[in-house]
Amino acid sequence: MQKFWQQITGNVMPSLRRRMTGADALPRLAVLGLLSGIVTGAVILLFRLAIEWPLEYFLPDGSSESFEKLDLVTRGILPLAGAVTLGLITHQLAINDRKVGVVHVMERLNYHQGYISLKSAIVQFVSGVATVVTGQSSGREGPAVHLGATFSSLMGQWMRLPNNSIRTLVACGCAAAISASFNTPISGVVFAMEVVMMEYTIAGFTPIILAAVSAAIVTQAVYGPEPAFTVPGLTLNSLVEIPWILVIAVIIGVAAALFIQLVDSLGRFNHRPIFLRISLAGALMVPFAIFIPETMGIGYDTVNATIDGELGFWLLLAVGLAKLIITSLSIGLGMPSGVIGPTLFMGATLGGAMGLVGAELAPDIASSIGLYAMLGMGAMMGAVLQAPLAALMAVLELTRNPNIILPAMLIITTASLVTSEVFGKRSLFLTMLKSQGLSYQSSPVIQALRRVSVGAIMEKNIMRSARHLSIAEARKLLKSEPKWLIVEGSSGPTALMPAVDLARYLEDTEEVEADKTESGDNPESIDLINIPANRRDIAPVQYQATLEEALNQFDLTNAEALYVQRHVAPMIQRIYGVVLKSDIESYYQYRRS
């Protein structure tokens, strides 16, 4: 068995890595996407069970969301004690180890090519479970995205795949996590492409779709085929409701902008001790937990009650606004909470409240409260995340009703425009990245360069040579007809020169060599650094690197060429080829045309 495994890792894996370097590695990416979905589905199942089991044991009636039935004292103590404990744990961690959630995944994609550590997944798992179990205003979808992205990234790192493939696997993990959390595969795919990757590519769709589907199958095997919310048949009763839907879109767009602004404003306190910030967030949660306990935990029981029309106007309005305030305060102060679930909660309650107003204004034609709750969910998600397509797909999959498409498209796009164009807000995740002093590169050129590894365009016809060699050694070197010669120095490769320049030098010195041979002198030694040649300064780049990383290496080192290397053993580097900046430019121009 051991011999078989060594044969697999020794023969199959190098071949797989070579084939994964280009943008056309679709069949292999599809298989990896399928595996990513299965792994992510299993991880999300474990994460959900870690939340539900203690809550079902602790909360009344055996429900994992009935925080409202706890007594006042318990409701007040639970979030504060949980926040203090989380603060103490987080305080012991290094600053980089504290980062969790979708924002951290986007940071790792933009600055570290999707490499995410196992330690960050452990921190996210513990903090994600703790925030929900202790009644913080939180959700499980953001932590789920982090977990799915991490384990998919780890799979790629373990296989030592090139970085462009690891980036795709991270997107697969994000899509699989959303799919497994809501049982909505399509919205998972669109979320990964629109929110996290910020690009749509044909090559990316296939593995991401397979990841989302396989993750949904894994969770359906345990939780069944029903989506996260129980939604009755919904339909728009009359087109006369369209103006009111536009009014609701404006209201939700304003609420989304307020939510993003509150989170952004509190970001200026990031330099304060993390223990104090998280403890303060827990203290602020106490009055909300006592007087508006619906804000505790995930709150999907309140969302379902809203869809069923069981809650009154003032309660819906109070709960929606309270959720907006306490969630923004908690996230802004550094509580490691998920934001996607609270966003849906806010949208459902505010949309349901506005639906009740519409029913009072026009009782004969008004649609059901459930319709307005679902529209509000989509509008808030689209506006806060600036992801209208992902929000539309989520509403469609959750309702499984095509009749909702027209009003959903209208309210989601309008709310998103109000938030982005009227108030100038970017998505919450980009806003949080900016508050950390980070940016997110999403230009078409950068995205195209990230999809391809240096291994796809490097020139492999190379030979390594010592700086000093005899004419006989030089001729032997040229017999294999290399295109480039990498000149070795005392501390590694020092220059790159065309092999044809050495061949030309040998031709020019043939007569001189003949004379020395007739006189009995030894053939002269050649110094490859001093002979006439078009030499280039050279710097290393790792085999896994993308073309974007290669360009960054050119700028960092001012080198004229890069040699592509990989660690094959401790202290041993193998060189596979060379890349010029002109090669990258030519490749991009060819692909674009």
Report on the architecture of this protein.
It is a single chain. The protein has helices at residues 2-19, 26-58, 72-91, 101-112, 118-133, 141-158, 163-182, 185-197, 202-223, 242-266, 274-291, 300-307, 313-332, 340-361, 369-385, 388-399, 405-422, 428-435, 444-450, 471-478, 499-508, 510-518, 547-557, 581-592; strands spanning 462-466, 468-470, 484-489, 492-498, 525-527, 536-542, 561-569, 572-580. With 593 residues, it is α/β, with parallel strands linked by helices. The strands form 2 sheets. Strands 1-3-4-6-7-8 form a 6-stranded mixed beta sheet. A two-stranded antiparallel sheet has the order 2-5. The two termini are 49 Å apart.
Total helical segments = 24
Tell me the total number of β-strands: 8
Please state the average pLDDT score. Answer: 88
Helix content: 55-70%
Give the overall silhouette: elongated
> Helix- and strand-based class?
alpha/beta
Could you name the ranges where pLDDT drops below 50 across 5 or more consecutive residues?
A: 1-10
What portion of residues belong to β-strands?
A: 5-15%
Distance between the termini: 49 Å
Radius of gyration from CA coordinates? 29 Å
In order across it, which strands form the biggest sheet? 1-3-4-6-7-8
* Main pleated sheet: 6 strands, mixed
Transmembrane segments: 25-51, 76-95, 200-222, 242-262, 274-292, 312-332, 339-357, 369-392, 404-424
Pfam family, one: Voltage_CLC
Protein name: Chloride channel protein
Subcellular location: Membrane
